[in-house]
Amino acid sequence: MYSDQTPGLPFMKMHGLGNDFVVFDARAEGIDVTPAMAQAIGHRQFGVGFDQLAVITRGTGDAHLTFYNSDGSLSAACGNATRCIARYLMDDTGRDSLHLTTARGDLAAKDARGGLTSVNMGHPQLNWDEVPLAREMDTLHLPIDGDPTATGMGNPHCTFFVEDAEAVDLSGLGPRAEHDPLYPERTNVQVAQIVGPDHIRMRVWERGVGVTLASGSSSCATAVAAARRGLTGRAVRIDLDGGTLHIDWREDGVWMTGPTMHVFSGSLTPAFLESLT
């Protein structure tokens, strides 16, 4: 399939607060990503390594984004990757706003100045069947030890409010909650400590990935859950292991603002690609 003369497959390595991504720009030429291919590229010893892989294609807006977790599963939403790609596309086109499409729906992105990028992640999904959960229940208080809150942001979330986020064994709690029977599609897991009425300290276990330094959709879900419980206002600062995001739950959706970084561009070699067949 590939020869020594065949050019490799170009990619970009990006991150938002250490939440890292491999990104393929497939607008000019399609790329057929399989779950096995995503897994192989995502391996941090035998591949490149990432929390999510993102593919940019042409769409009804400025671009369409498709996301894969490091276990090869699809994810409808990835907030930090969306911000990274929005920054790349804005730098490429010279524009300061974009209309992006994802499996989550249409997302607006804009330059927030000062090196920051904002994305509207859409309205939160608050009903049990939207998250989704396995049966009808109050999403504000789940019948799970720790009294978490369920929120959908195009992907499912389970937020635990705790006294000390640092003290939680996230590597133990994360997989238990991710695979809880109440979540038929598994779930992302957050432990959130309320620091003040507009300030949250949060740690993240991502579905299909594990512990990550940051997560945009998790930050949005936690901000919504905290506001619904009356623990904070609708605009909050969220401090994650990798840095700070600002979340603002407005009438038109949940806006997320923070820094991005395009670390390097590279190319998967023909030999590596051949090993995947």
TrEMBL record:
Intracellular or extracellular location(s): Cytoplasm
Catalysed reaction, written as an equation: (2S,6S)-2,6-diaminopimelate = meso-2,6-diaminopimelate
InterPro entries reported in the protein's UniProt record: DAP_epimerase_AS, DAP_epimerase_DapF
Site residues (Could be important to modulate the pK values of the two catalytic cysteine residues), renumbered to this chain: H157, E206
Involved pathway(s): Amino-acid biosynthesis; L-lysine biosynthesis via DAP pathway; DL-2,6-diaminopimelate from LL-2,6-diaminopimelate: step 1/1
Spans through the membrane: none
GO molecular function, one term: diaminopimelate epimerase activity
Domain of life: Bacteria
Binding site for substrate: N19, Q52, N69, G79, N80, N155, N188, E206, R207, G216, S217
Active-site residues, record numbering mapped to chain: C78
E.C. no: 5.1.1.7
This protein's UniProt keywords: Amino-acid biosynthesis, Cytoplasm, Isomerase, Lysine biosynthesis
A Pfam family the protein falls into: DAP_epimerase
Subunit architecture: Homodimer.
Role description: Catalyzes the stereoinversion of LL-2,6-diaminopimelate (L,L-DAP) to meso-diaminopimelate (meso-DAP), a precursor of L-lysine and an essential component of the bacterial peptidoglycan.
Similarity remark: Belongs to the diaminopimelate epimerase family.
PANTHER family: DIAMINOPIMELATE EPIMERASE, DIAMINOPIMELATE EPIMERASE, CHLOROPLASTIC
Protein name: Diaminopimelate epimerase
Organism expressing this protein natively: Sulfitobacter faviae
Source organism phylogeny: Bacteria, Pseudomonadati, Pseudomonadota, Alphaproteobacteria, Rhodobacterales
Name of the gene this protein is made from: dapF
